[in-house]
Amino acid sequence: MEHKKTKEILEDAEKKEFSQLQEIEALKSKLSDVVKEKEQVQQQLNNHLLLHTKFEEEITLLKEQVTGYKRLELEIEERNNENGKLKNRNDELASEIWFLQREVEKLKEEKNQLETKQQQELTQLKDKQELQLRNELLEQKLSFKEDISHLKEQITKEKEAYHQLERDYTQKLQDMYKQK
């Protein structure tokens, strides 16, 4: 019986040991799950920390942009004031330009009238000069015709004199031959 008891004790001990081994395996599995969960949580924390750092950097950049925008707003306001002044000056200049354009138009009209008058006078002078030149040319032509006519008469007289000389010479030659 003792042997039976010992055997039972051993079986109980083996059962307990088996049960404890199963519990240890279950605890190891749970520990592995907890370690995985811890790693996931750690990864999430790292991700959150990284996001937090990026958000802080982005906030810093946004603050700088806001400061820049405020400066731009001030600059825009200054430019708007300058533009208002320039617009007023532009309006004044536009008015001055309008009056100057009217004056320029009047001066152009006066210039055109003077040019027309000058052109007419020039045309009259050209016509007068042309007439004078024609008259002079006609007078020269007449003079040349008279000179030509006079020269033709002279040439005709000289030809007649030459022919007379030739006849006289021929006559004298004939008379000389006859006397011999």
Number of domains: 1
Rg, alpha carbons: 69 Å
Query: How many helix segments?
Result: 1
Q: Major beta sheet, specifics?
A: none
Range of helix content: over 70%
Mean pLDDT: 92
Fraction of residues in β-strands: under 5%
Poorly predicted regions: none
Total strand segments: 0
Helix/strand/pairing class, anyone? mainly alpha
Task: Write up what this structure looks like.
By secondary structure, the protein is an all-alpha fold. The protein has one domain. The chain is 99% helix and 0% strand.
Task: Provide a short characterization of the protein structure.
With 180 residues, the chain is mainly α. 99% of the residues lie in helices and 0% in strands.
Secondary structure blueprint with pairings:
Blueprint: H1 2-179
Main attributes of the structure:
1 helix, 180 residues
